[in-house]
Amino acid sequence: MTATQDSPKGKLKKTFFKSDQEVRWCPGCGDYGILNAVQSTFAELGLERENIVIVSGIGCSSRFPYYMETYGFHSIHGRAPAVATGVKLSRPELEVWVITGDGDALSIGGNHLIHTLRRNVGLKIILFNNRIYGLTKGQFSPTSEIGKVTKSSPYGSVDMPFNPLSLALGVGATFVARTIDVMGKHMREVLKAAHEHEGTAFIEVFQDCNIFNHGAFDPIVKKEVRDDRLVDLRPNQPLVFGQDHDKGLIWDCNQLRVVKLGEADETGKVWKEEDLVVFDPSNPNPSLAFALSHLREVDEPTPIGVLRSIKQASYEKMVHGQIQGIQDKKGERSLEDLIYAGKTWEVK
Description:
CATH topology of the domain at 14-216: Rossmann fold
CATH class of the domain at 14-216: Alpha Beta
Strand order of the largest sheet: 2-1-3-4-6-5-13-7
Helix content: 25-40%
Distance between the termini: 57 Å
Order of helices and strands: HEEHEHHEHEHEHHEEEEEEHEHH
Structural class: alpha/beta
CATH architecture of the domain at 14-216: 3-Layer(aba) Sandwich
Number of strands: 13
CATH superfamily of the domain at 14-216: Thiamin diphosphate (ThDP)-binding fold, Pyr/PP domains
Strand content: 15-25%
Largest sheet: 8 strands, mixed
Number of helices: 11
Shape: globular
């Protein structure tokens, strides 16, 4: 299947990637926005659908493969990265995407996720983060905030929540990004960048569960506030944000601090755009990316976009390179050769 077969102009439509299955998410769920963005992005990239595999675990998000006209696996709870790793190792030419949720990936699947990230397997992982267990009807999840009242925490959760971006950066992920379900254009930009990355691309998506955790991200993503609450990371650009582009981030005493441009602070310093931190996601040193991932939603801007994108050989490339090197040295051998390679004996 080529990009020209479905359109006389050689451009695909997102319907090319829509399956014939009824989409069974709650009306108003943020998952619809993510599905739309993925289908639109694949169409814009002109991808061949028989070369795409979607692997999911268990959860609301994990119905995703049914709605994509591609190959797919609806695997088991938390094990989507392991299944996807097997696919990518056996067929490295395929484009393999992992769909998971904050519960699926960070609870039972946490170990699989971190080792996939550290190995840099050539997978594109989209983590739907709604800070709740939706499929099982509203228990607190590994990303729920302290004090979260749910069916499983009637007096408020006392668990310290995971920070998915910090976790990914901490285990050495080579591509780390965040986007939001209601910001379609931004999401498509991030997905395209993930597609182009060699190795594991990890994308956290703030996603609204309008049944069990509705409005969890409203304080930072509603249209009337998002310009003042989000800082959109652009490569080699100063960290400016605000509705009037009048705020920015500086590096002060080994941490990021918000300043108001054109106004004097308590020291009398008048801040200008050239004083701000210039962000480079390709910097091998992850210190700034870590600092960005730790900004507090309450009184600091929340970063979106690509926090880290560095070049490193993918796991599957190294594995196949190793195999080829051994074959070049010893020649191709059979299973029988392997069985009789060491000391053997016969039992009578």
